[in-house]
């Protein structure tokens, strides 16, 4: 089966099928990305690829094992990852499950720091946080305890609590991690500092004068936030301003556009991979195994000339042997298969037609292998109208003392329509059998007409029944003659 | 159609005849008869021709008849067509043979 055959046999249902399953797979990726479930699903996909390859290469045991693993995979996933699945289903609404793309909620060190600084300011907890620049600050600072941990709100606020032994020192953040805490900074020697600046402010400015570091000060007395950088002090009351200062200092690109575009790219790659994977699986499943079936289908005669009538056909149904993939063959319903014979060029009399693939319409992906019988004879006749006399078909026994002298049928003649050959052969239209036993005198009956050929019918306006008026006489008894 | 002919006249004309009477006749009378000629009585049972009889007519008027003997298989609707020598139908008489 070549590529063209594969593609031309594609139904709209198949496209919908692939699109639907691809979307389900894509949503699974979106919902479970970053968890073990997604890795297991990827692993199963890999196992499926191995199985297909093994089947293709004829590796019997390998393909058998892979097939069994895939068969129980769904069960394994549900059992092992029931907690993850439950948390996804419980935590998200339907829109989140089927449509929206969850954003990453992981905060960056800068965001954590900004959040922590404003929290400390709210609680009027003094703090001193140093963001190292490109220059080495180890020579400028003294003491401190190495931490080398990821910054978090909890750690930062804990460090600056008054109970903490290192709360008077500075925290140094380098390369996104808390490098040291409890560090002593050099004090500035400027004498024109505002009177409300304390030792923390002086220490912050001292380091900012000596290095390119950025130092954040949280005032213990007023809860103000001041940034010392490049030998200057700047009061900051807005968290976006502080974030901007930190981002510029750390050389961070505008994170939102960057992260969003990266996330969008990842989603697009996932979507493409989902479609490709499902398409391959679909074709492998639906077009892989060839199946056969035989279907008895009625023959439909089309484009018959209006003045022609079908007298008889050699067969009314034909047996079609069909082939295709197992799934498509199983999905094929008799009403989807049609055998149509075009009678446009047929003539009055006997016609022979050979049924070919052009006469048979099949669902996409299903192919015709054989037709039995392949030749159909169709007898046609031109349709006409002819008038016939009506005769009563009396039956039974009339009473011996009666003579049925006269019978009149109204109307005496009726018009029939049908094939001209049949009409030519017909001479009389008879009534149904009329029993004589019940006749005791003159009377009237309504009786049905009997048409000898089913294809003949009464012309428009003619009734199926006629009126029968009859007359009887008493039989005259002849006088006996004596010898 | 009649059960028989008596004194050159039809006896017991009817449209239904019992097979028990054994015979049925078709009586035809022509007036005038311009010249000597002949006619046919064509007997049909259920549209199938069973008997064809030629009858001669003589001027100035003429009556003639044909009869058939009835057999068991003769039950059913009959007709007799009276035609001229060219097949033109003068008259069709319809009747039934019954039990």
| Percent strand of chain A | 25-35%
Shape of chain A: rod-shaped
Distance between the termini of chain A: 106 Å
Helix content of chain A: 25-40%
Instruction: Using the CA coordinates, give the radius of gyration of chain B.
Output: 13 Å
Q: Could you report the average pLDDT of chain B, rounded to the nearest whole number?
A: 95
| Overall residue-averaged pLDDT value of chain A | 83
So what's the CATH class of the largest domain in chain A?
Alpha Beta
Q: Approximately how much helix is present in the residues of chain B?
A: under 10%
Total strands of chain A: the figure is 21
**Unreliable stretches of chain A:** none
Number of domains of chain A: 4
Radius of gyration of chain A: 49 Å
Low-confidence segments of chain B? none
Strand proportion of chain B: over 45%
Largest sheet of chain A: 9 strands, mixed
SS class of chain B: mainly beta
Q: Quickly count the domains of chain B.
A: 1
Overall description:
The complex is a heterodimer of chains A (483) and B (99). Chain A has helices at 3-8, 12-32, 36-57, 60-80, 82-91, 94-98, 109-122, 153-159, 199-210, 239-250, 255-286, 326-331, 420-425; strands at residues 127-131, 145-149, 170-174, 177-183, 214-218, 225-229, 232-236, 290-302, 308-313, 317-325, 338-342, 349-354, 360-361, 367-372, 375-395, 402-410, 413-419, 429-435, 443-450, 457-458, 465-474. Chain A is of the alpha+beta class and 483 residues long. In chain A, a hairpin with a 2-residue loop joins strand 3 and strand 4 (177-183). The longest helix of chain A is centred in the middle third of the chain and has 32 residues, at 255-286. In chain B, strand 5 (37-45) and strand 6 (48-57) form a beta hairpin. Chain B is 0% helix and 68% strand. Chain B is an all-beta fold and 99 residues long. Chain B has a single domain, classed as Immunoglobulin-like (Sandwich), CATH 2.60.40. In chain B, the strands form 3 sheets. Chain B has a 5-stranded mixed beta sheet with strand order 3-9-8-5-6, with no helix packed on it. In chain B, strands 1-2 form a two-stranded antiparallel sheet. In chain B, strands 4-7 form a two-stranded antiparallel sheet. The interface between A and B is medium-sized, with 21 and 17 residues.
